[in-house]
Amino acid sequence: MAADDLVVGGMAPLTTVDYPGRLAAVLFCQGCPWRCPYCHNPHLLGRQAEHPVPWDDVRAFLGKRWGFLDAVVISGGEPLLQSAIIDAVAAIKDMGFAVALHTGGGHPDRLRQLMPNLDWVGFDAKTAFDAYAGVTGIAASGEAAALSLAEVVAAGIDYEVRTTVDETLVSRDDLLRLADDLASRQVQTWTLQECRETEIANRLPEIALLDDGAFLERLAGRFDGFTVRRA
Ligand code: SF4
Known about the structure:
Blueprint: E1 8-15, E2 24-29, H1 55-65, E3 71-75, H2 85-94, E4 98-103, H3 108-114, E5 120-124, H4 133-136, H5 141-155, E6 158-165, H6 172-184, E7 189-194, H7 198-203, H8 213-220, E8 225-229
Parallel strand pairs: 2-3, 3-4, 4-5, 5-6, 6-7, 7-8
Antiparallel strand pairs: 1-2
Helix pairs in contact: 3-5, 6-8
The structure holds iron/sulfur cluster.
């Protein structure tokens, strides 16, 4: 598939937070086979975009932003779902932009193909890899994600591993097992992200996990860097 086959569901002209330290535009790729209950981009899950952005428009926009933007962030949805992402990322690199990818890692073979053209990866580790189906709703999603994380670590590029904490889906035991797994894979830093669904916190009577300093210290001790990112 060629770059102009890429179904782009939306575009953000400027972000300062989605690729740390860079000024970037964001392309939101259409489609994701997973169904995380806390997904905040449900309009991007189906294969068909409500308001698709033609590839010619993407190219024209990026051409005009050359010299102002450093980079393009490829997000979604799940960008690895579409085979056209390979040519699309190559085309963006040819224009002179750095490229960052946000992914859950559902397609490790495609990620491996893409890796030579990536400068940074934001990797969403959903939970312990043997518990993924409880978050994504898809059997074997954890095996795919684990293979993809191995590709990211082996590539030697900068990356971030982050986990959204929805306590109705991810237990403390899941997080401890994920922490052990990440550390055993030589992941140096890990970020926990507060779930935006505030009603979740209201349903839980006990102390919220992200407010439990003793538990967070148990997780943090396995890493050189450990961050809690509030919504
Ligand atoms: S993997 Fe990402 S885009 Fe897909 S359902 Fe989960 S949160 Fe949404």
